[in-house]
Write a structure and sequence with these properties.
alpha+beta, 3-stranded antiparallel beta sheet, 2 helices, two-stranded antiparallel ribbon, 118 residues, globular
Length: 118
């Protein structure tokens, strides 16, 4: 016998991430690893930015801009690499200067610590 699971949108928006398809929080890391390679650059960046904002707003995630400030892997509940919103993932600003938000890498990390490390 197969159990059917139902998920409902809560008014706080914390339980499910809406990326054109609803994804439960516990499935998020695996879903993203499978979904991300199938997207165009524009499609990926659009979802990345929404995902980063959702994790920060609803799950106390942090944006890490420098790799040396990343917590140890065993401390992390979620770790997602996203294109820098400031430079659009290029590492450079419109005037050709290096982006200060991502240190010129074009990426930042969105991380959430495991509960025991918060």
């Amino acid at each position: 016998m197969q159990l059917l699971r139902e998920y409902f949108l809560f008014s706080d928006g914390k339980a499910l991430f809406d990326a054109g398809e609803l994804v439960c929080y516990k499935c998020l890391q695996n879903w993203w690893q499978q979904r991300e390679p199938t997207l165009s650059i524009e499609g990926r960046q659009a979802i990345e930015h929404r995902l980063a904002r959702w994790l920060v707003a609803h799950h106390n995630a942090s944006i890490i801009r420098q790799s040396e400030k990343l917590p140890r892997a065993e401390m992390l509940e979620i770790k997602v690499v996203v294109a820098c919103e400031q430079c659009g993932g290029t590492g450079k600003l419109a005037n050709g200067a290096r982006c200060r938000k991502c240190d010129g890498r074009g990426i930042v990390w969105v991380v959430e610590l495991r509960p025991e490390f918060q």
